[in-house]
Design goal:
The chain is mostly helical. It is built from 17 helices and 2 strands. Helix content is 66%, strand content 1%.
């Protein structure tokens, strides 16, 4: 886990210029020693996740045919959420700086343990980081079933139009399907030209689901097995979606023609969530979304200090810096969804 020399991942060359606003902030972050890798932290964190996974598997085997398995399913949902956050940190090279151990760790965490394509998700997430909240370029705000702006709402037809009218109320119920959506999207992406190792990733995905469904439907009768999968995947999707939802939803949207430098593009489109150690653990450091977008390879435990430095620097430059509590962040996101869907409600 060698130390990185510069933080250049997903940072355009213009942002790295010696005199840019971002370069001055980057020097402050480096001088504070925040770019150092944290091997002890990640060993303990990932070790705890593996132990929790082993505990869930043991409890599942011991309980056997019992409705108490639904409690195991809920615990496993939390573990899967933490596996997703681990895969996220690996993809951003927060754990290792070398490509090979990063990819091996990512394939194990995402494909083998989580049932999600590491390559597909990393490609999608990299495009998001490059253009957060950009209506044409950020895949996370592409109009699918949910519309993220009034312009998207005005163009929606069919099912997206119906959902868009009620999307604030439907948002959390829809998140329960996100776990399934990640798996379906992963299999669909195997044939995409951007997929570098489709056979390897596909084999790991198949192995994951053979073991998962094989174990569930062997130990439990069909009714309980279906209930177990529904609770597990539903709560997993709700957890992971609730971690990512407060980060950008309701913040400034960007369209072609709007000129923002790297620093302002990342700060103005992101929201931080205040909280102590518990929020840091539950959100995997993504509650410091502004700093994570500015310095994607910065280890999670360094983000708290980076937040203090970045907020102060933004105040010096007069750049709006938004930080709020967890509940308030979700309220802002829901308010934005309601506002974005207004043209659809007015159309009826």
């Amino acid at each position: 886990m060698a130390n990185p020399t510069v933080l250049t991942e997903q940072i355009p060359p213009v942002a790295r210029g010696a005199g840019s606003d971002f370069s001055r902030l980057s020097r402050r972050i480096s001088e504070a020693g925040l770019t150092e890798r944290r091997p002890v932290y990640y060993t303990l964190r990932f070790g705890a996740v593996v132990l929790a996974l082993a505990a869930c598997c043991t409890a599942f085997a011991v309980l056997g045919d019992s409705w108490l398995q639904l409690l195991v399913a809920a615990g496993l949902a939390a573990v899967f959420g933490q596996l997703g956050l681990a895969a996220h940190d690996l993809a951003h090279k927060q754990v290792f700086t070398r490509r090979r151990p990063t990819e091996i760790g990512g394939l194990i965490a995402a494909n083998a343990l989580l049932g999600m394509s590491y390559g597909w998700w990393m490609n999608k997430h990299t495009r998001h980081h490059a253009n957060p909240n950009h209506e044409e370029k950020d895949p996370d705000v592409a109009p699918n079933l949910i519309v993220w702006s009034r312009r998207q709402a005005s163009e929606a037809r069919g099912l997206p139009a119906f959902i868009g009218r009620h999307q604030a109320a439907l948002f959390y119920p829809m998140l329960t399907l996100e776990g399934f959506n990640l798996s379906v999207g992963s299999f669909r992406a195997l044939s995409a030209p951007s997929m570098k190792r489709p056979f390897l990733e596909g084999s790991l995905l198949v192995a994951h689901f053979v073991v998962y469904f094989g174990a569930v439907f062997t130990v439990l009768p069909p009714g309980k097995a279906v209930a177990f999968v529904a609770v597990h995947m539903g709560l997993f999707g709700l957890y992971l979606g609730s971690v990512f939802a407060p980060n950008h939803k309701g913040m400034q949207m960007v369209t072609d023609g709007q000129e923002l430098d790297f620093l302002r593009r990342q700060v103005l489109t992101s929201r931080n969530v205040r909280g102590g150690a518990l929020i840091d653990a539950l959100m995997g450091g993504l509650n410091y979304q502004i700093e994570h977008h500015l310095f994607p390879s910065l280890p999670s435990p360094a983000l708290r200090e980076a937040q203090r430095i970045t907020e102060q620097y933004c105040a010096e430059l007069g750049i709006p810096y938004h930080q709020t509590g967890l509940i308030a962040s979700h309220r802002e996101a829901l308010r934005h969804l309601r506002d974005a869907g207004e043209p659809l409600r007015a159309r009826r």
